[in-house]
Design a protein that fits this description.
single chain; alpha+beta; 6-stranded mixed sheet; 2 helices; 6 strands
């Protein structure tokens, strides 16, 4: 949660993989409440488009494996779009939308 907190802008606005509208506080809360155990998590097929000196849009896929808090194994694939803005020399994510493609 602390790594995400440093990268996400205070005025962040997003849509979670569950289809919920989230601000920064809600996003951090979702991460803290996640009791799944992850054995692997990776980003794949990243595409970065830079607009001027201060805006970038990143699209890609993410793949994670592990077990739920009940011990049930999972294998999930997501697609996402993140919008980043450079403010005071630091890149911050200001908007994001995640979609779950598959869950086994």
């Amino acid at each position: 949660a602390s790594a995400v907190d440093a990268l996400v802008a205070p005025d962040f606005s997003g849509i979670s993989a569950k289809g919920k509208f989230v601000n920064k506080r809600a996003l951090i809360g979702e991460i803290k409440r996640d009791k799944d155990t992850y054995t692997s998590a990776r980003n794949e097929k990243l595409n970065v488009h830079v607009y001027g000196d201060t805006v970038a849009v990143v699209t890609g896929s993410a793949h994670s494996k592990g077990a739920t808090k009940e011990g049930k194994p999972f294998d999930r694939t997501y697609r996402y779009t993140d919008t980043w803005v450079q403010r005071d020399g630091q890149w911050q994510c200001v908007a994001s939308q995640d979609s779950i493609l598959s869950e086994k």
